[in-house]
Design a protein that fits this description.
Aldolase_TIM; FBA_II; 287 residues; globular; TIM Barrel; Class_II_FBP_aldolase; zinc ion binding
Length: 287
Amino acid sequence: MLVNSKVLLEDAMKHNYAVAGINTTSLTMLRAALEAAEEEGTPVILSHAQLHEPYAPIELMGPLMKAAAEKSTVPCSLHLDHGTTEAYIYKALSLGFTSIMADFARFSFEENVVRTKKIADVCHEIHVTVEGEYGEMPSNVTGQGRALPEGESLEFFFTKPDKAARYVEQTGVDSLVVSFGSVHGIYIEEPKMDYERLGAIREAVSNTPLVMHGGSGLSEEDTRTCIDGGIRKINYYTYMACEPSKKLVQFISSSDKPPYFHEICEYSRELMKEKARYAIKLFQNRG
């Protein structure tokens, strides 16, 4: 069933777990994510990132995602991940997305607040959940993202607890993406998570669900510590999306005939479903 993500996050806060927010850049990946959630009997947030537009146009993927969510046997939210322009955000709303990430973290704090509040006001009028972001993730230390300015420490990008409280109060967002050590993409160094900072952020915005991007690659111990520290949604994509490439060469070369593309998709779907199932179970934080 298609629901507003606020319902999912409120339940996650109540029962100390995190909802998986899985980016789906194809029908194959959409099926993998949704089947994993249904087989585990857990809610899921199906996401489409604006940066994936060249590979998965929202006009095509949005209706597919919405139809799949409506028919699902578990609660599903339809989420726009990293919406960086007002025009694209409004396009997602017109297609029936029930959750929006207003990503204006690249701007100054003041402009981020103004732009995010404008989106939040529009979304709340039509009962759509808004995820905001204050703090960023660097790339020249680990993972992918904006480079660390010369002479600055890693903490340059981290969310400051006092400003996080101001940001939530002034924008009215329903959930907050925070930066305290995780990154987008593949980790090229072991992540160093600032759990003391996470605790301070949680205390500063105690009634707001916290979101962590960069869920791929963290250890199970780190993931559980993040959840116990207040993370209620974890974005997951990279390890799931990369899984088929590890085994496709063997699959194709071992076939007695050139495999059809739909056979490659089916093989990939099963591999990605297992990665999604692993993440969903881990994020449920059941011990």
